[in-house]
Amino acid sequence: MGPSISPVISFIKENNHQNHESWRISMEKKKVDELMKDFYQEYQEDPSGWSFWMSPPPESDKFYEAYIIHGDEAFFLKLDSIFSPNPVGIGTKLEIERDQLVKDLPDFGYRKFSRKEVEKFLKNIPKPEDYKSKSKFFQALKSSQNKMIEKALDKNPTRFEPIEEPGELAAIGPYSSESPLDYVSEKQKQLRKDLSKKLNEIINREYPGYY
Asked: Which residue ranges in the chain fall short of pLDDT 70?
């Protein structure tokens, strides 16, 4: 379903008991944990229609970017890492124009699978002994994984809730490892700079031995 490397994941674990020139800022800048609380609350109210994008640092920057998009709004974050379960980050909430997006993704979200569904997934995984060569096996394995993901995405995302029955599994995703924007306006570039500057200040102030 996607990599488990976002601040969304660590937060869930802790809590599971106009024109085309710019995105208009609709909320103040917040640290990543505060912004994820806002996302969590909004997602619980309406878990459909979300997409999640993780982008590498732009050429003029050293921080990763995350876009969590829902309708005409998005949470935009600057993160020091996408590999840490507790990244240092800052972000804001913005209003967007839909035609700025490169493409639509299958709905991002939380999906639970019953024991019967899990057993069916496992049953369809190919076995090495059934293939004469490694290349044929890995080709079949990749095809099986793709079909499994497609089948999983047929389910609608639901609210985050604990696993209750033995044998149940849950997945969070899908993610896209690119930028959702077809173009970046001058105001968006300035917002990136402002957030990066603020994130540098936070790191220097609160994590003096970081670098």
From this structure: 1-27, 104, 183, 210-211
Picking from 51, 56, 80, 83, the residue whose alpha carbon sits closest to that of residue 67 is: 51
> Which pLDDT belongs to residue 20?
38
Determine the Cα–Cα distance for residues 68 and 106; give it in Å rounded to an integer: 13
HSE on the CB side for 190, CA within 13 Å?
Answer: 8
β partners of residue 55: 65
CA dihedral 35, 176, 198, 10 (to 10 degrees): 40
Tell me how far the alpha carbon of residue 164 is from its chain's centroid.
25
Reference 114, options 172, 173, 166, 188; nearest CA is 166
- C-alpha 88/C-alpha 208 separation (Å) is 13
User: Do 200 and 192 form a contact (C-beta atoms < 8 A)?
Assistant: no
pTM, two decimal places: 0.78
The pLDDT tens digits for 12-32 are 434 443 333 444 544 578 999
